[in-house]
Amino acid sequence: MKLNMLSTKIRLSNIRIVARISILSLFLLASSAGAYPPPAILKTNGNELTSGIETNCWKEENQTSGICTD
User: Fold this and answer.
1) What is the structure's pLDDT at 2?
2) Are residues 20 and 8 in contact, defined by beta-carbon separation less than 8 angstroms?
3) SS3 track for the chain
4) CB 25 within 8 A of CB 32
5) Total structural domains in the chain?
6) Looking at the domain assignment, is residue 65 inside a domain?
7) Structural domain of residue 18, as residue ranges?
8) pLDDT for the residue 56
């Protein structure tokens, strides 16, 4: 009887650990989805310039593919 209770407690403990890891993983994935850094703001002499996120691509002449960055 004691062995059966111990086995049940171990299974419940394992289920709790897996559930916590799963919830934490979902939380981390959801919080990082679409996460971009905030824009940089340059202020000089009362003027502001705000940066943006864009894609830049380069390719050599007569080539069909190139290198792109975000």
Assistant:
1) 62
2) no
3) CHHHHHHHHHHHHHHHHHHHHHHHHHHHHHHHCCCCCCCCEEEECCEEEECCCCCEEECCCCCCCCEEEC
4) no
5) 1
6) no
7) 2-51
8) 80
Share of the chain above pLDDT 90, in %: 3
Q: Which of 54, 55, 51 is nearest to 41 (CA)?
A: 51
- Residue 32: the pLDDT is 60
Beta strands 47-50 and 41-44, pairing class: antiparallel
Look up residue 54 and give its two tokens: 């864009």
Residues in the chain where the model's pLDDT stays below 50: none
Q: Per the domain annotation, does 68 fall within a domain?
A: no
Pairwise CA distance, residues 36 & 52, whole Å: 10
pTM (predicted TM-score) = 0.41
Q: Does a structural domain hold residue 35?
A: yes
What is the structure's pLDDT at 3? Answer: 62
In a domain, 42, yes or no: yes
